[in-house]
Amino acid sequence: MKAVVIREFGPPEVLHLERDFPDPTAAPGEVTIAVHAVSVNRTLDLAVRAGTYVAPIRLPHIPGVDPSGVIRALGEGVTERHIGERVVTLPWRTRPQGPLDALGIQHLGGYAELVRVPAKATAPIPDGLDFATATVVARHAPQAFNLLRDRAQLKSGEWVLVMGAAGGLGSAGVQVAKLLGARVIAAAGAPARVAAALGLGADYGIDYVRQELTAEVLRITDGHGVNVVFENIADPLLFAQAFRAIARHGRLVTAGSHGGGTVPLDVQRLYLYQIAVMGSIGFTEFDVAFALKEAAAGRLRVLIDRVLPLAQAAEAHRLVASRALSGKVVLDPTLE
Fold first, then answer.
1. What are phi and psi of 145, to 5 degrees?
2. DSSP-derived 3-state class of residue 301
3. Hey, is 141 helix, strand or coil?
4. In this structure, what are the phi and psi dihedrals at residue 2, rounded to the nearest 5 degrees?
5. How high is the pLDDT of residue 327?
6. How far apart are CA 210 and CA 187, in angstroms?
């Protein structure tokens, strides 16, 4: 099969398109999928390629944690799926609440024409939903539901500050927060990205490159601050500013660290304001199905900057690293 293969860690140029990589064969309980879309993720793809990801990566390796496509073959014992079915894949091969055991990390991923995954780690794509949109929805929206509804226990009428609001997870957070009845402040690093988040339903926008984040949040909320910060950057400066914008009894939830991952924590404010800080990578299978249904009905949208063929995987990594895009980059192995 055609696949983008990493045989050494390094810059985007280590992503090589190979046209004779061995086809995967579905083992018992697995399915083989003909891939039609897989997104490019800053941490789970770029860090894996660079060799800086927290988990060890065995070479040669194929990146790609969230492929979607059409089932090509069924392994022994698979009855819940059928050949020709359109499906998304879930990165967790085991239970999504447990330790990460994922495509594109411990297992060969979706930058390829074919990928094999456990049948239980797939979900059907509703009619009318294209592969690129389904991939991005399944990758980020269930996580946003977990963070905001389950971890932060967000209530209708509360204030939410969404960081990186035009990114994959951030844009999902904006929309999930609105579905839960919150008042949303979208923070992003460029006017176009702020505008994109406002277009998804955010009530207010802040350009945290040109505006002081804490001051703007306090101005918008009449000095109250936000009840919840939806954080997925972990940039030392921005994290500290967002943390100072949290109201008493507020919560900060996070599932991202592409801004560095090590941040200062104002412990005095933490205990005086009785703030809770929670990280999570979990979600439920129900959330996956619900998010896909909402997307098919037009009530949940994604920001996709462009779709590229596998041959442009290195360029896709450079574009994502530039932080200049408003939306996801998606690879489509069916494109030449």
1. -60, -45
2. coil
3. helix
4. -85, 130
5. 86
6. 11
Helices (H) and strands (E) in the chain, counts: 9, 15
Residues contacting 211, CB < 8 A, separation 6+: none
The sign one gets for the Cα dihedral 62, 2, 9, 314 is negative
How much is the pLDDT for 47? Answer: 92
Scanning the structure block, which residue is given the tokens 């993720």?
41
Residue 225 burial class via C-beta count within 10 angstroms: exposed 0-12, middle 13-18, buried 19 and up: buried
Which two tokens mark 300? 């949940």
Which pLDDT does position 95 carry in this prediction? 52
- Domains of the chain from N-terminus onward: 3-124+303-331 (3.90.180.10), 141-279 (3.40.50.720)
Res 93: pLDDT: 58
Phi, psi (5° rounding) for residue 243?
A: -65, -35
Question: Residues near 145 by Cβ (< 8 Å), separated by ≥ 6?
Answer: 176, 283, 284, 287, 290, 291
Could you state, in chain order, the average pLDDT of each consecutive group of 10 residues for the chain (336 residues)? 98 97 97 98 92 91 97 97 96 58 91 96 96 96 94 97 94 96 96 95 97 98 98 94 98 90 94 96 87 94 95 97 87 96
Number of CB atoms found within 10 A of residue 1's CB: 17
Rounded to whole angstroms, the Cα distance separating 69 from 100 reads 22
Q: Which residue has the tokens 């018992």?
A: 28
pLDDT for 101 equals 80
Residue written as token pair 């994109």? 196
List, as one string, the DSSP characters of 3-31.
EEEESS-SSGGGEEEES-PPPP-PPTTEE
Residue 104 to residue 247: CA distance in whole angstroms:
38
pLDDT at 97: 52
Whether 229 contacts 246, CB under 8 Å: yes
